[in-house]
Amino acid sequence: IAFAVALGFPVDEYAVRVYPSLGDEVLGQADVANKIIMLSLQVFSMGTKMLAGTLIEEWCHIRHGHHDCSRAMQNWLFDNLCSLGERILGEPL
Question: How many whole angstroms separate alpha carbon 36 and alpha carbon 47?
Answer without folding.
Answer: 22
